[in-house]
Write a structure and sequence with these properties.
By secondary structure, the protein is α+β, with helices and mostly antiparallel strands. It is built from three helices and six strands. It comes from Xylanibacter rarus.
Length: 116
């Protein structure tokens, strides 16, 4: 999976917004104003950072070499995934969806969502 495929998948998720709040070398994807995925465009190896429950992140880090604590983010919750050639696209999409659902589940009930 490449960065453009990740972008396309993220934007297919309901109520997802794309932004560049840290400058031109970072892209983030949000649901309800909260980030569920980071992409550092200048990374030496194409990488995404997803938010997972701490125990889930630890489990995946132990299982896969291409899964590690996220660089420059809270390493308890955020995980870097080396995306090109490391995993089948479906696995990466599942982890992105898991991050999206986790962040969405933590939104206040008053957060208005376009698609339910």
């Amino acid at each position: 999976m490449n960065i453009e495929e990740v972008r396309k998948y993220c934007l297919s998720l309901p109520d997802t917004e794309e932004a560049m709040p840290y400058g031109e070398d970072w892209v983030v994807f949000r649901v309800g104003g909260k980030i569920f995925l980071h992409i550092w465009l200048e990374a030496p190896i194409p990488t995404i950072a997803v938010k997972l429950l701490p125990e889930r992140g630890e489990e995946l880090r132990e299982e896969y070499n291409a899964f590690s604590p996220a660089y420059h983010l809270n390493k308890k919750h955020w995980n870097d995934i080396f995306i090109e050639g490391s995993f089948p696209n479906r696995m990466i999409e599942d982890w992105i969806k898991e991050s999206y659902e986790l962040v969405k589940s933590k939104l206040p009930k008053s957060t208005e969502m376009v698609a339910q």
